[in-house]
Amino acid sequence: MLNLVVATKVEAESLINALHLKHASATFPLYTKDTTSLVITGIGKCRAAATTSWLAARSESVSASTGRNTSACWLNVGIAGHREAPIGSIFCAHKIHDLGSGKVWYPPRISSPLPSANLTTVDKPLENYLPDQLHDMEGSGFVETARMYSYAELVQCIKVVSDNTEQPFSNIDAKLASQLIEQNIPFIIKFMDHLQALAANLNTLDISIVSEFLHRWKFSVSQKVILERLLQRYSVLHSPMTTLPADLHQVTSGKEALRWLTHSVDSADFSL
């Protein structure tokens, strides 16, 4: 499942056409085909958060027991400002900072042809650009909410530069916003393919390695669920675990094993 979250109709039009999506709901502007959904949020992080939550709740495949659909990919696509980057250049956000709250998120970096950049979410357009930063108004609301419904690896933001110091925000119109997304459709679709491949790998797990963990250490019911999720992530970020790594032979409890796995997946970059 792929969920696309876009702020405005003009930014969404090219994606709707390229993916052959059809209008599906009037509650929020929603367009779908098969397992792909695109929702238009309106401008601002609060709207992005609310609409992302609505789309997650609408999904019939969200697990009633965990509140997560582990195969769901979430991608925020839109335009953003940058002090120096050329108009039309495209980036994946590897750090998202909410300027108002000070909160920071670090989306795990997945292999793609896109360069990465810091993204700062602001409440209103900045007259003075921050150095070496993308600026948008939805990213933080999206990522904070979407992470409640899927793995961090599957929650990503792509931004196309729409304004800079030479061509400021006041120059943006609907035609330009639409054109900027349209010219980057091939890159966006390739990135979507990476996400979906990652999601597929996250849902495959060799049950024998789970049994080896359960045989060696004791785990509560909730810890068993966490163990399986961490082993799924480990198999994608590193390689499928077929035997216990040497470091784990020194571990004396299930809690320590989970801590080791958590550190291993959180400190890794994904390559496909």
SSE arrangement:
Elements: E1 2-6, H1 9-18, E2 22-25, E3 30-33, E4 36-40, H2 45-58, E5 73-82, E6 90-98, E7 104-105, E8 116-121, E9 134-136, H3 139-146, E10 155-163, H4 174-182, H5 185-202, H6 207-216, H7 221-237, H8 254-266
Parallel strand pairs: 1-4, 1-5, 5-10, 6-8, 8-9
Antiparallel strand pairs: 2-3, 3-4, 5-9, 6-7, 6-10
Helix pairs in contact: 1-4, 2-3, 7-8
What does this 3D model show about the protein?
- The structure is a single chain.
- This protein folds into 2 domains: 2-201, Nucleoside phosphorylase domain (Rossmann fold); 205-266.
- It has 8 helices and 10 strands.
- The chain has helices at residues 9-18, 45-58, 139-146, 174-182, 185-202, 207-216, 221-237, 254-266, and strands spanning 2-6, 22-25, 30-33, 36-40, 73-82, 90-98, 104-105, 116-121, 134-136, 155-163.
- The chain is elongated and about 65 Å long.
- Mean pLDDT is 88; it is low at 61-66.
How many β-strands, per DSSP?
10
- Compute the average pLDDT: 88
Helix content estimate = 25-40%
Number of helices: 8
Give the H and E element order.
Answer: EHEEEHEEEEEHEHHHHH
Q: What CATH first level of the largest domain would be assigned? A: Alpha Beta
Radius of gyration: 20 Å
Please, what is the CATH homologous superfamily of the largest domain? Answer: Nucleoside phosphorylase domain
Total count of domains = 2
Structural class: alpha/beta
C-alpha termini separation: 19 Å
CATH architecture of the largest domain: 3-Layer(aba) Sandwich
The shape, in one word, is: elongated
Q: Largest sheet at a glance?
A: 5 strands, mixed, barrel
pLDDT < 50 runs, ≥5 residues: 61-66
CATH-derived topology of the largest domain: Rossmann fold
Sheet with most strands: strand arrangement: 5-9-8-6-10
Proportion of residues in β-strands = 15-25%
